[in-house]
Amino acid sequence: MKKIIFSIMLLFSIGFIKANPILPPPVISEFYLVNDSTWYLELVFDQSFNYDTILDGYQITTSTGTALLKNGIHITLGSIIVITQDSLQSMLYIYRNGDDIRVEKDGMYIDELAFGNNQYSMINSPLQGQSIVKYSYICYDTYSGQFATNYRIVKENTPSIGSNPFQASVFMGTFSGKVLDMINNPMSGIRIGNQVYYGAPSSICGVDFSCVVTDSTGEFNILINSGRHYVQFFTASATLSDTIINIEPDSVNYFEIILDTLLNHTALNSIHQNFLLSCCPNPSNGKTTISFELPENINYFSILIKIYNSTGEMIRILPVDISGKQNKYSVEWDGKCYDNSIASGTYYCNLELDGKKVATNKLIITK
User: Fold this and answer.
1) 145 and 34, same structural domain?
2) Residue 309: inside a domain, yes or no?
3) Per the structure, how many domains does the chain have?
4) Residue 43 burial class via C-beta count within 10 angstroms: exposed 0-12, middle 13-18, buried 19 and up
5) Does residue 21 fall inside a structural domain?
6) Percent with pLDDT over 90 in the chain
7) Can you give the pLDDT at residue 81?
8) φ, ψ for residue 206, nearest 5 deg
9) Which of 340, 274, 351, 285 shows the shortest CA–CA distance to 318?
10) Do the Cβ atoms of 231 and 239 come closer than 8 Å?
11) Is the peptide bond before 126 cis (omega within 30 degrees of 0)?
12) Domain final residue, candidates 267, 296, 324
């Protein structure tokens, strides 16, 4: 296992990035690049492609051009098809330093994988011997209220082209480092992760990785998926900064983070407003409506309702649809945790705007 060392000075926040919604199953499972003209593209077509039995009319497009697949390549739904240069009617190059691979049919988009030095890049370029995998896993989708299959793009150190689609084996790396202030003093108690999902179970689809907190020496260490990650540095009361990191698999990725605390503290604006948050009925035998009203001068990008039990454990996240941009909102809680269980007791309903708690209310459940 190798060690990679980075040094980053973070001066300001680059902004809030929302978690991706659950998308339709991809077609590209894995991509392995030997050299510009020797590559392997693993495809899997699910039941939504039951209208096709052969790949006639399908094409692969990259930054160098488009090549049609040869006629007569049969599709077996749910089975692996490995596409190589020999599968195409013309030569097609894919560049290691960055490219955008698109699967199309009759010019219509089917799926895509962009990497490296490319404007649509989803992950850094694979190193020699690495593949890129669209890794599937089961998580809880807060929008649909049920468990679903989601996908993350990771690097794989042991390519498995032709077997185990949408899976990887050596794809995790260590995210570690030290957080310092501008005069190189270690900063303890700094939370690292995504502030919106702080304290949320790792089974939620929006959670990239569980937040980690720096120790008394400013150090932190956590094992996470390889690939790109949006990371915030924050405390219980303020977001200090954020950045995007890249993690290589089977390696220790060490970051020395220097926070410009003076700039951040002077730039932070606390919300000192009255927010009307109510739960009705309260007490409730399970189902309750959570309503709230926002001041007219508040700007926000996301609203979440988080439910906690009496021990402080987050048991549910309820996203709020803000597409209409209004002042009054309401969401319904069915009284259930992520595992569909609920018990009588006292619960706390928190209202969060862009990851900051602005109101709370006590809710009593009687069964």
Assistant:
1) yes
2) yes
3) 3
4) buried
5) no
6) 44
7) 98
8) -75, -10
9) 351
10) no
11) no
12) 267
Domain containing 225: what range?
Answer: 2-16+172-267
3-state SS assignment for residue 364: strand
Last residue of a domain, one of 247, 267, 287: 267
Average pLDDT, the chain: 85
Are 148 and 221 in a shared domain? no
CA distance 310 to 291: 21
Amino acid sitting at position 21: P
> Parallel, antiparallel, or unpaired: how do β-strands 239-247 and 2-10 relate?
unpaired
Residue whose C-alpha is closest to residue 225's, from 267, 174, 189, 284: 174
What are the angstrom distances between the C-alpha of 99 and each of 62, 120, 123, 126, 248? 6, 9, 11, 11, 19
Q: What is the distance, to the nearest Å, from the Cα of residue 303 to the centroid of all Cα atoms in its chain?
A: 18
CB burial string 315-341: b at 16+ within 10 A, e below: bbbbebeeeeeeeebebebebebbeee
Burial class (CB in 10 A: 0-12, 13-18, 19+), 270: exposed
Q: How are strands ordered across the β-sheet holding 356-365?
A: 314-319, 303-309, 345-353, 356-365
| CATH number of the domain residue 200 falls in | 2.60.40.10
- Residue 163: inside a domain: no
**Per the domain annotation, does 22 fall within a domain?**
no
pTM: 0.70
Tens digit of each residue's pLDDT (9 = 90 or more) over 72-98: 999 999 999 999 999 999 999 999 989
User: Within 13 Å, how many C-alpha atoms sit on residue 241's CB side?
Assistant: 20
DSSP 261: H
Output the CA–CA distances (angstroms, integers) from residue 203 to 122, 146, 171, 209, 250, in the order listed.
22, 11, 19, 10, 23
Are 144 and 49 in the same domain? yes
User: Considering only 96-105, 135-144, 217-226, 357-366, which range has the smallest mean pLDDT?
Assistant: 357-366
Note whether 221 and 307 are same-domain residues: no
- What DSSP string runs through 8-58? EEE-S-----PPPPP-PPPSEEEEEEEETTEEEEEEE--GGGTT-SB-TTE
Identify the residue with better confidence: 92 or 271. Answer: 92
For 260, the token pair is: 């410009």
